[in-house]
Amino acid sequence: QLSESVRHQRVFLEKHLGAWMPAFTDKVIEHARTDYYRHLAAVTRTFVSEDMDGLPNLPAEQMVPVQHEA
Predict the structure, then answer these.
(1) What are phi and psi of 58, to 5 degrees?
(2) Cα(36)–Cα(62) distance, rounded to whole angstroms?
(3) How far is Cα 28 from Cα 35, in angstroms, rounded to an integer?
């Protein structure tokens, strides 16, 4: 179902990439020796942010945490 796929994507982006991507890209931008890596980090951060912003907002009752199988 679409809402479940969106929920899984949102959880992945917020809990995984969103947990470390901003700090990582900031460090790359700060310490990269070439513009290539600075720009790549900026594009990556923007892409992840835009991807999160582009996801449809689901009703709160559909935003229950994703259960991972052990």
Answers:
(1) -95, 150
(2) 40
(3) 10
User: What is the pLDDT at residue 41?
Assistant: 98
Q: How many CA atoms lie within 13 A of 21 on its CB side?
A: 18
Query: Splitting the chain (70 residues) into consecutive groups of 10 residues, what average pLDDT does each group show?
Result: 82 88 96 98 94 74 51
Torsion of CA 56, 59, 60, 62, to 10 degrees: -90
Q: Would the CA dihedral through 35, 40, 46, 50 be positive or negative?
A: positive
Question: pTM for this structure?
Answer: 0.68
